[in-house]
Amino acid sequence: MKSRENLIQFGLLIIALSTIVILLLIALFILKEGLPIILRVGIKGFICSTHWSPQQGQFGILAMIIGTAWITAGAILVSLPLSLSCAIYLSEFSTPKVRGTLKPIIELLAGIPSVVYGFMGMVILFPLIRNYLGGAGPSILTASVILGIMILPTITSIAIDSLQAVPHSYREGSLSLGATRWQTIRMVILPAAKTGILSGIILGIGRAVGETMAVIMIAGNSVIIPKSLLDPVRTLTANIALEMNYATGDHRQALFATGIVLFITIIILNIIAHTIARGGVEK
Amino acid sequence: MEDKIIIKDLNLYFDTHHVLKSINLNIKANEILSIIGPANSGKTSFLRTLNRLNDITSAVKISGEILLDGMDIYKKGISLPWLRRKVGMVFALPVPLPRSIFENIVYGPRLNGVTSKDRLEELVEKTLKSAFLWDEVKDRLHTSGTKLSGGQQQRLCIARSLALEPEVILLDEPCSGLDPLSTSKIEEALYELKKQYTIVLVTNNTKQAARVGDNVAFFLMGDMIEYGSSEHIFTVPNDKRTEDYITGRFG
């Protein structure tokens, strides 16, 4: 009986470890495929050059880094006011019943396939932007709006949880000192929930940086340094997905190297999010 | 002495649960009224009707009248921040806001529009002295209020409610988590404070009620069983249930 217990325990341990092994294998594989070209071109030549023309052997991804940064920043700007308002309303003003109904619905937004978001962008936003702001349609702006909606559930849901985690006694203490509900939220509850909300935002950034399908459909994918919000850009993820099909040799390696940059960015963002979240718990 | 608060036929329901049953009670100015009774007898709920803090819980229903200086505080158009500045509250668990000692005290006055630095500093010193805390913290006013000991935190909470210059102070078992020394410091503070304020003290400690209370109300299962002066209630209570409770036979 005892040995059977041990066997089950051991089996579960192996399965648990295998997920870590998979992560390590992916990391190793990307490094093995991508690192040689970075070493050859030099980190500076790879990250700080804007020339991306694989046929001529030019592998600089700065334009894509800038594209990713613009779209991510735009997405956060679009998403933050919406998701914070949502979270504040649902946590502080709505009844538990309304909260219990609406929160899962908002989280459902995360379950919509990203190709559907891209499709909505093409069908609804392209004509709007073309008619009212100019440009062709595919642009930083389009991608920011759509991505902003895509990361809404991540930030909203984490923000609601952090607001709900603020001790009820803070609310009562503040109210009993003659504060209005809004003053209480602004001066006591938001500051107390700040770390949790911040880690939600960073996870949202991570999602935006990693999003591929919707971005390919609506960002335009031109390898240029954008001069306005209406310019089309290409992101790091789009670069890989668009060219991997036909890439060989150095070109293929350069795409894997783009993957390394993405991989490291996401890992750093996750570490920051976890550090902040842990700091919030300990105070 | 004149009546500061008059409670007429007060009923309170949470959903269908009848928490307070037809309470009639007059609270006199500059007295300490202690409210005693076993757990779940409605003491805390009663206290929270006096500054309308029950209102933040949904599904609460109230009937009857509570007159503060003759004005019905449940009348339409009463400003809750205004009421809560007039009727301060100290909770069972001391919870300073996650700010410095100084900021905890000036929080309320600032919201009320007091901005002069001199005035705020004066308020901090005055209220901390009234709460018998000044000497212990005067050198570290800008350290976090949550770093103080339990007894100090509770006196900080008393000080911050005084900073609003209220007329009535509600205390909900303020000494329940404190050691005897801290308790006696708070009782000493209360004794001084009643010269200026009207105090309603909910306590589980009948000895404390006897020590500091001028009058005592005994609550049981949402009913107010008996009301009278401390000497009377603790020596010759009229009701058998009151006697049973204060002699420790139940509750």
From TrEMBL, chain A:
One of its GO terms (cellular component) is plasma membrane. Keywords: Cell membrane, Membrane, Phosphate transport, Transmembrane, Transmembrane helix, Transport. It is found in: Cell membrane. InterPro entries: MetI-like, MetI-like_sf, Phosphate_PstC, Phosphate_Transport_Permease. The chain crosses the membrane at residues 7-31, 59-84, 105-129, 141-163, 184-205, 254-277. Residues 65-273 form the ABC transmembrane type-1 domain. The keyword Transmembrane helix applies. It is a multi-pass membrane protein. GO terms for molecular function: phosphate transmembrane transporter activity. GO terms for biological process: phosphate ion transport. Belongs to the binding-protein-dependent transport system permease family. CysTW subfamily. NCBIfam families: phosphate_pstC. Part of the binding-protein-dependent transport system for phosphate; probably responsible for the translocation of the substrate across the membrane. This is Phosphate transport system permease protein. The lineage of its organism: Bacteria, Candidatus Desantisiibacteriota.
TrEMBL record, chain B:
It holds the Pfam family ABC_tran. PROSITE patterns: ABC_TRANSPORTER_1, ABC_TRANSPORTER_2. One of its GO terms (cellular component) is membrane. It comes from the Bacteria. InterPro entries: AAA+_ATPase, ABC_transporter-like_ATP-bd, ABC_transporter-like_CS, P-loop_NTPase, PstB-like. GO terms for biological process: phosphate ion transmembrane transport. Keywords: ATP-binding, Nucleotide-binding, Transport. SMART domains: AAA. NCBIfam families: 3a0107s01c2 (TIGR00972). This is Phosphate ABC transporter ATP-binding protein. It comes from Candidatus Desantisbacteria bacterium CG2_30_40_21.
